[in-house]
Design brief:
The complex is a heterodimer of chains A (about 190) and B (about 350). With about 190 residues, chain A is mainly β. Chain A has one domain (about 1-20, about 40-185): Immunoglobulins (Immunoglobulin-like). Chain A has helices at about 1-20, 180-185, and strands at about 40, 45-50, 55-65, 70-85, 105, 110-115, 125, 130-140, 145-155, 165, 170-175. In chain A, strands 2, 4, 6, 7, 9, 10 and 11 form a seven-stranded mixed sheet that branches. Chain A has a four-stranded mixed sheet with strand order 1-3-8-5, with no helix packed on it. Chain B folds into two domains: about 10-135, no CATH class; about 140-220 and about 260-335, no CATH class. With about 350 residues, chain B is of the alpha/beta class. Chain B has a six-stranded mixed sheet, with helices on both faces. A two-stranded antiparallel ribbon of chain B has the order 1-2. Chain B is elongated. The longest helix of chain B is centred in the C-terminal third of the chain and has 24 residues, at about 260-285. In chain B, helix 4 (about 140-155) packs antiparallel against helix 5, helix 4 runs parallel beside helix 8 and helix 8 (about 260-285) runs parallel beside helix 10. The chains are: A mainly beta (about 190), B alpha/beta (about 350). The interface of A and B includes residues 92, 178 and 179 of A.
C-alpha cells in the first residue's frame, strides 16, 4: 500500500513538472512511446455549474484503450489553466445532486488536483474498450475556469513499456453567482 | 401571535378505561428515550400511554418535544399551519435547551411520533424536507417557481434590472412573498445583479435595484413573522421508507397549506404574465431568441382555469388590475368578459 502511495506521489510530481513545462510538439523526440494508445474524449468543452448546486459543475469524458494490453489508470489530474472573475448572475433552482459522481476535484484549493488521491478503487481499461467518466468539479461562484484533464496510464502486463499521458483540450467551466453568500465571498466583480 | 403555555399538564379520564390520566403538554422526551421512541408503539413510553390500561394516547394524540443529539424534534398532534407550528417551537423549544453556544439550533418537525421513531430507527433513511420558515405565508409554490424562473431567464439574457423588477413588482402587490425565503434571496441577488445604474422604471427615477431592495427591507422587515426564530433551522421532515424510497406506510401530511383565494391567484398570474411579456420584449430588443421560460401560455392557462370560479365583482376587479398593468382590456386580449 505504501509502495502504491510512493509511486503515485512520484507520478504526481512527474506529471506536475510535465504540466509546468510542456514540451513543444516540434521539439518532442520521435520514439515508439510517442504513439499514445489511449484516447481521452470530451463530450463537451463548456460547462456551467448546476442550477441547484452553485459550486458544482459536471464534466463527462471517456478514455479509450486503443491497445491490445490491459491498461491501468494511474493518474487523473485536473489542471487549472486560468481563473477569471466574471460578473454573471443566475438564480438557484430547487434540487439535489445525485451520488452518481464519484470522481471529484475542488478547483478552489489548487491549480493541480490529483483526482485519484481520494478514490479507493482502481480503474483498469480493457483492450479496445472505452470507459465513460463523470467528474464533479467544485469552484467558486463568480468565476470562470479554463481547465484540462490529464491522464496517465500504464500497461499491466508490459510495465517496461512505461507510462502514457494524454490530455483533453481546454474546457471552460463557469460558476455564475447564484447565492448572496457567493456574491459576498467574491469581492472582485469589476469586470 | 398566539402563545402556547410553556408548562402545562392536561388531566382527564382515559378514553379507553376512564381512569384519571395526567399528561404534560407538550410531552418532553430526552435522548435516553430514543430506543423507546424507535420501537414505539410496541415499547412502553410514559405519557403516551394510560398507566392503568396501557391504551395509546389516552387523552388523544399530544404534541411531543424530543431533545436529541445535535438536533431536537417536534411531533404534531394534528393538522397545523406553518405559523402555528413555528409558534409552538418558539414557546416550547427555548435556545438554552440546545447544545453548546454557537452550534445551530436545528428543529425537525415530524407529522407523528411514529415518523420520529422511524428516523431514529433508520437514521440513514431519506427524508422529504421543507424549510418550515418558508411556510409562514399562504401556499404560493407554483407562483414562486414561475417567477424565479422568469427572473432567471432575464439574468440569462443579461437584462439584470428586469430580473429584479419582475420579483419586486409582485412583492409590491403582495408583501407576503417577501417572507418566502426563496423569493427574498432571489430578490436580494437580483438587486445586487442589477448594479449601480438606476432602474429604468424606478419609482423616483434615480434609485438602483439595491436602493429599492433596501427600502423594501426597511418597510417589511419589522412585520416578518416569528423573527425570534432567526437563529433556528426548522425543517419539516417526512421520512421515506428505506427500501422503497416512498412515504412510510400510513403517514399523512399534517402541514396545512393554505391556498390563496382565486382572485389573488389570478392577480399574481396576471403579474407573471406581464413579467413574461416584458421579458419577451426586452429579449427581442436585444435580438436574442425567444424563450419558453416567459411562460405566457402557462399564465393564460392558469387564468382561464380560474376564471369560471370568479364572481362578477372579482372579474371586474381583475379586469381593472389588468388595465392598470398593461393599459389594455382583458376582454380584448384574452376574450375574458367580466359579464360572461
Amino acid at each position: 500500500m505504501l509502495e502504491v502511495k510512493r509511486y503515485r506521489t512520484y507520478l504526481y510530481e512527474s506529471l506536475a513538472s510535465l504540466l509546468a513545462n510542456p514540451p513543444s510538439p516540434s521539439s518532442a523526440p520521435p520514439s515508439p512511446m510517442s504513439v499514445i494508445p489511449v484516447r481521452l474524449h470530451l463530450y463537451r468543452t463548456e460547462a456551467e455549474a448546476l442550477n441547484y448546486s452553485p459550486r458544482t459543475a459536471l464534466v463527462r469524458f471517456s478514455i479509450t484503450n486503443l491497445s491490445d494490453d490491459l491498461l491501468k489508470l494511474v493518474s487523473l489530474i485536473v489542471r487549472v489553466l486560468a481563473k477569471n472573475a466574471k460578473r454573471r448572475f443566475r438564480l438557484p433552482a430547487v434540487g439535489a445532486p445525485h451520488d452518481e459522481y464519484k470522481l471529484s476535484a475542488d478547483l478552489s484549493v489548487g491549480n493541480v488536483v490529483e483526482i485519484l488521491d481520494d478514490v479507493r478503487h482502481q480503474f483498469i481499461l480493457k483492450p479496445r474498450e472505452s470507459d465513460a467518466f463523470s467528474l464533479a468539479l467544485f469552484g467558486n461562484e463568480g468565476y470562470e475556469y479554463k481547465i484540462i484533464i490529464v491522464c496517465a496510464l500504464e500497461s499491466i502486463e508490459h510495465q517496461e513499456r512505461g507510462r502514457w499521458t494524454t490530455e483533453t483540450q481546454p474546457i471552460t467551466i463557469s460558476y455564475p453567482i447564484r447565492t448572496v453568500e457567493g456574491y459576498r465571498d467574491h469581492g472582485n466583480l469589476s469586470d | 401571535m398566539e402563545t402556547y403555555p410553556t408548562e402545562m399538564t392536561v388531566t382527564a379520564p382515559c378514553a379507553n378505561c376512564g381512569s384519571h390520566v395526567s399528561v404534560p403538554l407538550p410531552i418532553q422526551l430526552e435522548l435516553i428515550h430514543a430506543d423507546f421512541i424507535a420501537k414505539w408503539p410496541a415499547s412502553r413510553l410514559e405519557d403516551t400511554m394510560c398507566g392503568s390500561c396501557g391504551a395509546v394516547w389516552p387523552l388523544g394524540e399530544m404534541p411531543c418535544v424530543y431533545w436529541g443529539d445535535g438536533w431536537a424534534a417536534l411531533t404534531l398532534d394534528g393538522p397545523r399551519t406553518g405559523i402555528e407550528i413555528l409558534t409552538q417551537i418558539a414557546n416550547w423549544m427555548p435556545v438554552h435547551r440546545f447544545g453548546s453556544a454557537g452550534s445551530p439550533f436545528i428543529v425537525r418537525v415530524f407529522d407523528s411520533l411514529k415518523d420520529l421513531g422511524y428516523v431514529l430507527k433508520h437514521p440513514e433513511c431519506s427524508v422529504f424536507r421543507e424549510d418550515l420558515k418558508g411556510r409562514v405565508t399562504r401556499h404560493w409554490d407554483d407562483e414562486v417557481l414561475a417567477l424565479i424562473d422568469i427572473s432567471d431567464a432575464a439574468l440569462e439574457g443579461r437584462v439584470e434590472w428586469l430580473s429584479y423588477v419582475i420579483l419586486a413588482g409582485v412583492v409590491q402587490d403582495y408583501p407576503e412573498f417577501f417572507f418566502i425565503s426563496q423569493m427574498r434571496n432571489a430578490l436580494e441577488l437580483t438587486a445586487l445583479a442589477s448594479g449601480d445604474e438606476s432602474l429604468p422604471i424606478s419609482a423616483d427615477g434615480a434609485s438602483t435595484g439595491l436602493d429599492e431592495y433596501n427600502q423594501t427591507v426597511k418597510a417589511l422587515e419589522p412585520h416578518r413573522p416569528v423573527s425570534e426564530l432567526d437563529s433556528y433551522h426548522i425543517w419539516y421532515d417526512a421520512p421515506l421508507d428505506e427500501n422503497t424510497e416512498r412515504p412510510i406506510e400510513g403517514s399523512v401530511t399534517r402541514l396545512i397549506r393554505q391556498s390563496p383565494p382565486n382572485i389573488d391567484l389570478c392577480k399574481v398570474w396576471l403579474r407573471i404574465l406581464v413579467a413574461g411579456a416584458f421579458l419577451r420584449h426586452e429579449l427581442t430588443k436585444r435580438k436574442l431568441p425567444a424563450t419558453q421560460r416567459a411562460k405566457e401560455w402557462l399564465c393564460e392557462e392558469k387564468l382561464r382555469a380560474r376564471w369560471p370560479h370568479l364572481a362578477v365583482a372579482e372579474r371586474t376587479k381583475l379586469g381593472a388590475y389588468f388595465q392598470e398593468l398593461t393599459g389594455r382590456e382583458l376582454k380584448d386580449v384574452y376574450g375574458l368578459d367580466s359579464r360572461v
